[in-house]
């Protein structure tokens, strides 16, 4: 690739199980970008809260404790520079973040304004160097409203439920699969209707529908969007 490429700040948003984390993690290295899954931060605080038996609905003392727990969470890069590992007390706890108890509580924790405020500066600091794909639910609307490119990955709740059931190794039509679907519907409702940083596509986001896509097709769509935005930015810089 040309040495004159201008690497961008890319906001990649979408609802739960829309594929933004896995797609972003695959697309970023193809372009020599860093990747950050900000949802891991909220999952980590939720997991720590469960471990410490903190009820997010228990009032100001519980909120203060969750904010303190947020300070204990650190993102670590893998060999390709993707910030997709969570380290707490020097231990990698990433594999413990994608469990049913965390799925059930993470929307409640992420809706707490004080928790979001505690994590916001950390997310913005990561983007200052550029050349990053940052995935989340409010990246283009709140965290990085001036991002060079905003992408919103979307899919029907049924498609997302099928994907998550497949990830968990269960049939989508089974009792467990239907429970996953119900949980996603609840998560969508909470995320879209929370008073602070609700889930929505930014007005200038490129909305990509992924129902029926293979994983590699969606990765290709995101890579093409970024390359096109790079070309536009480079052309604008050359004519300035």
What's the short story on this structure?
This protein is an alpha/beta fold and about 240 residues long. The protein is about 50% helix and about 15% strand.
Top keywords for this entry?
240 residues, three-stranded antiparallel beta sheet, six-stranded parallel beta sheet, single chain, alpha/beta, Rossmann fold, 9 strands
Shape: globular
Count of discrete structural domains: 1
Strand order of the largest sheet: 4-2-7-1-8-9
The proportion of residues in beta strands is 15-25%
CATH hierarchy class name: Alpha Beta
Please compute the radius of gyration using only Cα atoms.
18 Å
Low-confidence stretches: none
Could you tell me the mean pLDDT? 91
What is the distance, rounded to the nearest whole angstrom, between the alpha carbons of the first and last residues?
23 Å
Query: Tell me about the biggest sheet?
Result: 6 strands, parallel
Under CATH, the topology is which?
A: Rossmann fold
Helix and strand pattern: EHEHHEEEEHHEHEHHEH
How many helices? The count is 9
């Amino acid at each position: 690739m040309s040495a004159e490429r201008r690497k961008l700040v890319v906001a990649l948003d979408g609802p739960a199980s829309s594929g933004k984390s896995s797609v972003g993690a695959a697309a970023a290295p193809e372009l020599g970008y860093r990747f950050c899954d900000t949802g891991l931060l909220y999952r980590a605080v939720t997991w720590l809260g469960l471990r410490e038996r903190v009820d997010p609905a228990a009032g100001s003392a519980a909120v203060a404790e969750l904010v303190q727990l947020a300070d204990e969470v650190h993102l670590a890069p893998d060999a390709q520079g993707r910030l997709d590992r969570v380290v707490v007390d020097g231990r990698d706890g990433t594999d413990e973040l994608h469990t049913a108890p965390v799925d059930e509580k993470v929307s409640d924790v992420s809706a707490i304004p004080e928790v979001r405020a505690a994590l916001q500066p950390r997310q913005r600091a990561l983007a200052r160097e550029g050349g990053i794909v940052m995935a989340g639910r409010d990246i283009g609307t709140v965290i990085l409203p001036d991002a060079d490119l905003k992408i919103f990955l979307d899919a029907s709740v049924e498609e997302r439920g099928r994907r998550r059931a497949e990830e968990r190794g269960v049939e989508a039509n089974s009792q467990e699969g239907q429970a996953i679907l119900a949980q996603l519907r609840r998560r969508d409702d909470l995320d879209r209707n929370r008073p602070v940083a609700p889930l929505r596509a930014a007005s200038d986001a490129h909305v990509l529908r992924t129902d029926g896509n293979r994983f590699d097709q969606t990765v290709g769509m995101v890579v093409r969007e970024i390359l096109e935005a790079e070309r536009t930015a480079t052309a604008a810089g050359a004519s300035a």
